[in-house]
Amino acid sequence: MENRIRELRKTAGISQDQLAALCGVSRQTVNAIENNKYDPTLSLAFRLAFALHTTVDALFLAERYMQEA
Predict the structure, then answer these.
(1) DSSP assignment, residue 41?
(2) Which of 4, 37, 45, 46 has the most CB atoms less than 10 A away?
(3) pLDDT in tens, the chain (69 residues)
(4) What is the C-alpha separation between 2 and 35, in angstroms, rounded?
């Protein structure tokens, strides 16, 4: 599922390491999510959204995913 994590993270001026620390995961996990190689758990999706000051639905591009289904 595509997401806006990289875009919002860069806008916030934080690194992958910083976002990972805020969410309790590794930098590699953040990188994999940003590159659409890993879909986060619901719990992690909420932590990412909170850290990036947005909502889960605004963070992930579910609209496009639903069109492909």
Answers:
(1) P
(2) 45
(3) 789 999 999 999 999 999 999 999 999 999 999 999 999 999 999 999 999 999 999 998 766 555 555
(4) 8
Q: What is the CATH number of the domain that holds 51?
A: 1.10.260.40
Read off the tokens for 5.
């994590």
Give the residues across from 3 on adjacent strands.
60
Number of structural domains found in the chain? 1
Tokens read off for 15: 């690194």
Q: Which two tokens stand for residue 6?
A: 């990289």
Decide if 67 contacts 1 (C-beta within 8 A). Answer: no
Which amino acid does the sequence have at 21? Answer: A
Count, residues in the chain: 69
pTM given for the model:
0.86
Which three-class secondary structure state does DSSP give residue 60? Answer: strand
